[in-house]
Amino acid sequence: MFDNFYGTGRAQIDEKLKAGKDVLLEIDWQGAAQVRRAMPGCKSIFILPPSRTALEQRLRERRTDSAATIARRLADAAADMSHYREFDYVVVNDEFGRARRELGEILDGGGAALNSTRPELKSLIDSLVR
Q1: CB-CB contact of 74 with 59 (8 Å)
Q2: Does the N terminus or the C terminus of the chain have fewer Cβ atoms within 10 A?
Q3: Own/partner pairs, 53-56, CB within 8 angstroms, 24+ separation
């Protein structure tokens, strides 16, 4: 993701799943597509920022990237976020506690109201990918 290469080995994932544990991977949409092909029964969750302004502010407040890297991430974000419908669920991270609860609902087998095709996401997506 963003010119970085990370990986979680399939054996590590299988080990956790066999032990009855959930596995949560923080990966980009391309990595998620690979996981869905390899594990069709997985649940995929796309986490969106509440606005482009909030995304930029969060990137800057982390103070881990250069201005050039932040600019590139923002430029790439629209294309990345346009893939949200490829996921089963979408959580909008506008308030951390709520986003955490919604993730928990999905992991617990619920979260139908958080599906990626819900109509109310359209206006948010339009504002994010402009």
Answers
A1: yes
A2: C
A3: 54/94, 55/128
